[in-house]
Design goal:
heterodimer; A: alpha+beta; Immunoglobulin-like; four-stranded antiparallel beta sheet; about 40% strand; globular; B: about 400 residues; Rossmann fold; two-stranded antiparallel sheet; 12 helices; elongated; AB_hydrolase_fold (chain B); Sec_MonoDiacylglyc_Lipase (chain B)
Chain lengths: ~180, ~400
């Protein structure tokens, strides 16, 4: 019986401490919120990526494809092509306080490359200041048609979000 | 001689922020727009120029991709482009009350932090450019571009190029801080073939570091003020198009002539401030320049200018302001007229720093020094906030 009673009493003794701790947490959160330190934003690092890797039209199997996204730090994913040369990466999104900092010159920098016989081919190389993946990127990253016999070139795409600037993307892939 | 348009210069200063580091394969992620790609090639450069920036207290040192070099192509083959980005890791250098003064190119006094950062990049620049620029004719133009601290480094790069190679050098800066003292600014103005110094009205960074540092060219004249804003707004320092207003947006034109040319020649003007008028001061670029001019006027009126200005080249900023406060105490003691002029200056400085409630009573060394510390402290905090997360 006494044992039974001791537990709630012990808990009761904890209450002021919990309240104090809660208050401290709450007030520091209020402070942080006031200065926007903890404010976090959704940052779209990459949409779903789907593509096919070929050499003069023939599918390349078992090739290592790497997706690197830099935004404050690096986020790296790897996959291999299947027997049809297909590969895919899931969408990648983070919560970040970087955009809340005053004047962050941060860019979402994305690189996708394939390594074939020790040689690197750039399938996608682009940077954006936007926190949401631009429409032009979303559309094209969903269908990367890459033949390693194509020369690497800079593609210029219409920028739906900011029409006064164009998107510049380095890639061996082609889109109609 | 070719000049980069405002829009191309802004693109370079912006794009270099995408070159934080090469990827694991050594690719530089910096695809360029049609207009820039037509003029310069960045191919064949395995990695960007690395710069070392260390905290002033030596707490950390990081090496990051800091600059890119482009070679002119086809009809632009007689030109070279160097774009340098800003960095938060040397924000401390800029806002340190005890700024050191170092001797740069042509024996001119420059900010020791900038000089150190530039010195770490110089060997890579030399390796990559020496051959190309030694062989280049006198019509070859090197365009140096940079935002923020990248602008300060671009200035030092421009001077160095001019002293090493027989080429033309053009400098384009966005929201750049002051790099050196009067001698440097004058020398820099004379040597560099063209200088486009772009600012926003509310960008706090061009206000730092405070006098005796001044802007080249022509002691602050020849500035391109790209908007009409006033006050201090951290977002006004941003390069990218998401800034308010964002240098990328305000420089989006093909013609320098279209951009408003601002010329604040306060430094050579006589400015005497009356204590009663102090509430007219505000925390703006305009008043920062005017306070500098008023300080110089007071020193000149009292015959102290050459002595004080001479001390600036010898010491660190901390000792400099200490001596300046001692000189002002002596000036105020000399006559009621000088005492009033000193009170006028200090009163305006306090209002500028948001301390309008403090009244100037005793013009002692301690009080004068405190006013300088407070004013510079306020300015530095706002600049630091603007820079810390670059």
């Amino acid at each position: 019986m006494t044992k039974h009673r001791a537990t709630p009493q012990g808990l009761l003794a904890l209450i002021p401490i919990l309240v104090a701790a809660g208050y401290m947490l709450y007030s520091s959160e209020v402070m942080a919120d006031m200065f926007g330190w903890f404010k976090r934003y959704d940052v779209h690092l990459s949409p779903k990526v789907r593509g096919r890797l070929t050499a003069r039209g023939k599918p390349l199997e078992g090739i290592l494809i790497t997706r690197e996204v830099h935004y404050g730090k690096s986020y790296i994913d790897r996959t291999r092509t299947d027997s049809e040369g297909n590969f895919a990466f899931p969408q990648r999104q983070i919560r970040s306080s970087l955009p809340a900092r005053p004047l962050t010159e941060a860019r979402v920098i994305q690189l996708i490359h394939a390594e074939v016989d020790g040689k690197s081919y750039i399938l996608w190389q682009a940077a954006t200041e936007d926190l949401q993946t631009p429409k032009a990127f979303r559309e094209r990253l969903g269908r990367l048609d890459c033949d390693i016999s194509n020369p690497d070139q800079t593609h210029h795409f219409y920028n739906h979000e900011h029409p006064q600037f164009e998107h510049n993307v380095g890639s061996i892939c082609r889109w109609e | 001689m070719e000049t980069l348009s405002p829009s191309i210069a802004a693109e370079c200063a912006d794009a270099v922020y995408s070159v934080f580091s090469p990827d694991s394969m050594g690719n530089i992620p910096m695809p360029l727009s049609t207009q820039l790609e037509r003029r310069f090639s960045f191919k064949g450069k395995p990695s960007p120029v690395m710069g070392e920036t260390g905290g002033i207290f030596g707490l950390y040192t990081q090496t990051t991709g800091f600059a890119v070099i482009g070679e002119g192509r086809e009809r632009h083959r007689n030109s070279t482009l160097i774009a340098i980005r800003g960095s938060s890791s040397i924000a401390d250098y800029l806002t340190d009350f005890d700024v050191g003064i170092a001797t740069g190119i042509n024996n001119q006094s420059v900010h020791s932090g900038f000089e150190e950062a530039f010195a770490s990049m110089r060997p890579s620049f030399n390796d990559r450019l020496a051959k190309r620029l030694t062989q280049a004719g006198p019509n070859h133009t090197v365009h140096c571009v940079g935002h923020s601290l990248g602008g300060a480094l671009a200035s030092l790069t421009a001077d160095w190029l001019k002293s090493q190679f027989p080429v033309k050098v053009k400098l384009y800066t966005f929201g750049a801080p002051r790099v050196g003292l009067k001698g440097y600014a004058t020398k820099n103005t004379n040597q560099i073939d063209a200088h486009y110094r772009c600012t926003h009205g509310a960008d706090p960074v061009p206000l730092a570091p405070v006098w005796p540092f001044i802007h080249a060219p022509n002691e602050g004249a020849g500035e391109y003020r790209l908007d009409s804003a006033e006050g201090i707004n951290f977002s006004a320092h941003r390069m990218g198009h998401k800034g308010t207003p964002g240098y990328r947006n305000t420089a989006e034109t093909d013609d320098w002539g279209k951009l408003k040319r601002q010329s604040m020649r306060f430094l050579n003007q006589t400015v005497r401030l009356r204590y009663e008028d102090r509430l007219q001061a505000s925390f703006t670029n305009y008043w920062s320049e005017k306070l500098n001019a008023a300080l110089i006027t007071l020193l000149k009126d009292a015959g102290y200018y050459s002595v004080v200005a001479g001390q600036a080249t010898m010491s660190s900023a901390l000792t400099f302001y200490d001596r300046l406060a001692r000189s002002l105490e002596k000036i105020a003691e000399a006559s009621t007229e000088f005492a009033e002029q000193t009170a006028g200056l200090l009163g305006h400085m306090l209002v500028f720093a948001g301390k309008a409630a403090v009244t100037v009573t005793k013009l002692t060394y301690q009080f004068i020094r405190w006013v300088f510390e407070t004013t510079i402290g306020t300015l530095n905090r706002s600049v630091k906030k603007a820079l810390e997360s670059l």
